[in-house]
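Table S5 (text form). Sequence records supplied for joint modeling of the two-component complex.
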Amino acid sequence: MAIPFSYVARNLWTRRLTTALTAGGLALVVFVFATVLMLDAGLKRTLVGTGEHDNVIAIRKGAETEIQSGITRIQASVIETHPAIATGPDSRPLVSKETVILISLRKIGAQKPSNIVIRGVSQAGARLRPQVRMVAGRMFSPGASEIIVGGAIARGFENTRIGDKLNFAQRDWTVVGSFDAGSSGFDSEIWGDVDQLMQAFRRTAFSSIVLRLADADRLDAMRADFEADPRLTNELKRERIFYSDQSRALSTFINVLGLTLTTVFSIGAMLGAMITMYAAVSNRVGEIGTLRALGFRRANVLAAFLVESLLLGLVGGVAGLAAAALMQFASFSTTNFQTFADLSFRFVLTPQIAGETLLFSLVMGLVGGFLPALRASRLEIVEALRAA
Amino acid sequence: MFLLRLVLRNAFRHRLRTVLTVTGLAVAVLAYGMLQTVVNAWYAGAAASSATRLVTRSAISLAVWLPASYETRIRGVDGVKRVARSVWFGGIYQEPKNFFPQFAVSDNYLDLYPEFVLPEAERAAWMRDRKGCLVGRQLADKFGFKVGDVLPIRGTIFPGTWEFVIRGIFDGADSSKVTSHMLFHWDYLNETMRKQKRRTDFTGVYVVGIDDIDNAASIAVAIDSEFRNSLAETLTESEQAFQLGFVAMSDQIIAAIRIVSYVVILIILAVMANTMAMSARERTSEYATLKAIGFGPRFLALLIVGESLLICALGGALGMALTLPAAAFFKKVAAIFPIFSVSSDTLLAQAACALAVALASAVVPAVRAARVRIVDGLRAIA
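The corresponding structure-token record, covering 770 residues in total, follows.
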């Protein structure tokens, strides 16, 4: 027969201060662990959500980002007439020839400017990205020096409210609207008319071409046509893959740094749990002797102390996870090493992360409590009773 | 003396508990030191920059190039001694994870950087070879580059695979200089671009050497006003401000690392406070006995504070002693940061943290022990 759970729980409750301190240490480690996972999940969700399934992006071969790429006007006109491209309601092909330029803008309250993507899009640009919705103001009109700003820009940067003017490339650009891009990467961008921006920046080549396939399976056929055409030096990528590739370096960095830290920190917290559990055992030698004398077996004693330490880990895990859940209200913005542009994303708590976090806290409790529980189970009945 | 002996005996009464606590402290102090060093490493570029150099770039952003024709006009500004061109090449050596910076630079670039030491013969060899390049010592050591090696680099901004011949390896004048980059001829880049019928005669930034540090601000303004209202307006700032701009791009990551480095102190504080609280509670009756035979509350408080200080001193010292080899190991294995050395400030901060943890965790038990009434204390059971 197992030792009742209430005995275990009451032991923790009796030594409240010690329990609180140990669980507090565990909770801090769990908090760091969970926020790292949440940050990575947020980054991935933002960049994967930026791409549409049947959208394809053409960039110059060898380029990894739109900033590095260049597509001449001749190439662009070859690409946009390819038969695999879907047509819109106006029976024009769903193609957006785009130019991507970085400009420096100052974050509210920051000393140093950040690099922001300004994207020139064609008429079809917004239709190709259904996640982009205007939330205030209106769309820029073609042929005018007007721009619209993404949600993260409107919230975080100076001088980006509707009616404000931004000066770059020898022109004043009026902010006429702001859009919400469903927390995708476009939220950290500014959009304008591609022809106006190309003219202002004296560009002769587009950066990328985004197109919608009439049939998502025709990508390979289109690739083959591109390979065969000597005029084209472009490669085609599914938009979703293109953007998730851009999260790779930052995601690896966050993961390596975060998981190294939590591993090191967890050593400290596990030692804390071990100290507590050893003390719990040595304070209760008499009780353990009594339990054994009553007929509980070694395995029961071992289990009781393991459960106690698992419970300790769980208390810390739940506390840490609760604190981490609050981080969902915060957002994080940093420069993506690969695109050199500022990207804003949120901490995202998924059920999987919650599960992993609780498992992690239980493992810490288990590792911390195993040796003390083993010692408790090995006590000899007679000596233990004598110690009481 | 009696106090010291009692402290020593008390600290090692539960040998296992003390060993565990000291280990925990050492791990935490070590982690704190490593995190501080990571933050410092971020600022290494800015710390190594010279006050006699300005950087002129496009006012729009770094990703926009400036015309090469600006060079003569910048040289004409009063107080400017030298002007060099530098273009970020952004190529990939074998695979993306082997990242290192490459710059196409004008031939006078090294004159502006006296902190990079290159043997005269190697410099002459580089000058003679249009496809020649120079690599820094840290970079050469990392990949095992030797003079004469051919370095194939796949361009991302500039298409194609470019082949460079290593003609020299430059050293930093002292250990604080970052030498993990590669330099090659701007002319080679420009001519290749011309052959490909693409944009030519541009530079990413101008590095401007000035005669007098005191004039830096006015020279920067003079350069920028030279190009105001032109097609490519410029932004000139000191090299340090330029480097800090890169640091600022990841400021939230740095802030997160800073916060986390305090979290580890909190974790260990919880562990240490727990150890002290447990020990003090178990000894309540002893403290009452000591009081009964005439020792005052001050003595008891000192006894507990002393024990806490002793344990933290051991843990802190162990952690600090481990920091230097750990940093050396990390630098060798991970090689993310070219400069990764533990500063004396970091060691001081580690000691301060250990001290703070010792005092904070002794407060509650010491006050309790000092206040305990003899009768209650004698009656107490652990």
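Note: The CA atoms of residues 117 and 171 of chain B lie 5 Å apart.
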